[in-house]
Amino acid sequence: KAGVTQTPRYLIKTRGQQVTLSCSPISGHRSVSWYQQTPGQGLQFLFEYFSETQRNKGNFPGRFSGRQFSNSRSEMNVSTLELGDSALYLCASSLQGAYEKLFFGSGTQLSVL
Amino acid sequence: AQKITQTQPGMFVQEKEAVTLDCTYDTSDQSYGLFWYKQPSSGEMIFLIYQGSYDEQNATEGRYSLNFQKARKSANLVISASQLGDSAMYFCAMREGNNAGNMLTFGGGTRLMVKP
Questions:
Q1: Among A41, A70, B80, B82, which residue's CB has the most CB atoms within a 10 Å radius?
Q2: Chain B residues with CB inside 8 Å of A45's CB?
Q3: Distance (Å) from the C-alpha of residue B70 to the closest C-alpha of chain A?
Q4: For residue range B19-78, what is the model confidence (pLDDT) as tens digits?
């Protein structure tokens, strides 16, 4: 069974641009969540989608958004990039999202110049 | 207050020895779950072990066990017979309540280095 797949693996953008990251969950998994990891703030929850609906949202500005498609694949978008958005963005999936193992992808390393 | 505290930024352990990584948590929810993840240099977070707040027995998964002390709000990870491949960052995380879905709060992590 294939794991959680995130594309692209690395991304370089400049301030003010926007970026879209993609995540394909494990087959059969309906919950997809996104996390941001930085050296200063550590791992922080961004949002979670379940059956195409946002179920939970972390404390991030509106520039961060996401969506989930009917096949459970998810995308997250960051508009008007800032230097502080440079981070490893991790996607995770699980079957339903409650009291279950959460499986992560290898992440997308975003650098904002 | 920090929800998840990992007080050991870095630790060394000799190969084949056991090691304990500390984690304390803070929550007012009666229902919660505690997780440990390993993050090697590749960046992927690897699930190690899960403990539910109502689980009466400590969780075990192969060489990993979780020393769950509810009254003290601690959930320490014990790795037995350390291997060189265990060198990585280790994160403790918590899911609170029944409606949290996959919203986890992570600790700052502990870097474990296994010496040959």
A1: B82
A2: 103-105
A3: 18
A4: 999 999 999 999 999 999 999 998 889 999 999 999 989 999 999 999 999 999 999 999
Beta-carbon contacts of residue A45 (< 8 Å; ≥ 6 apart):
A33, A34, A35, A56, A58, B103, B104, B105
d(CA B77, CA A96): 26
Query: Would you say residue B101 has pLDDT above 90?
Result: no
- Smallest Cβ distance to B91: which of A33, A43, A55? A43
Determine the residue type at B103.
M
Q: Which residue has the tokens 């995130």?
A: A6
- For B63-85, the pLDDT digits (tens) are 999 999 999 999 999 999 999 99
The fraction of chain A above a pLDDT of 70, given in percent, is: 96
Q: Chain A: residue nearest B94 by CA?
A: A99
Say whether B43 and A109 touch across the interface (CB within 8 A).
Answer: yes
**CB distance A92 to A35 below 8 Å:** yes
Return contacts of A62-68, CB within 8 angstroms, 24+ apart.
A66/A34, A68/A32
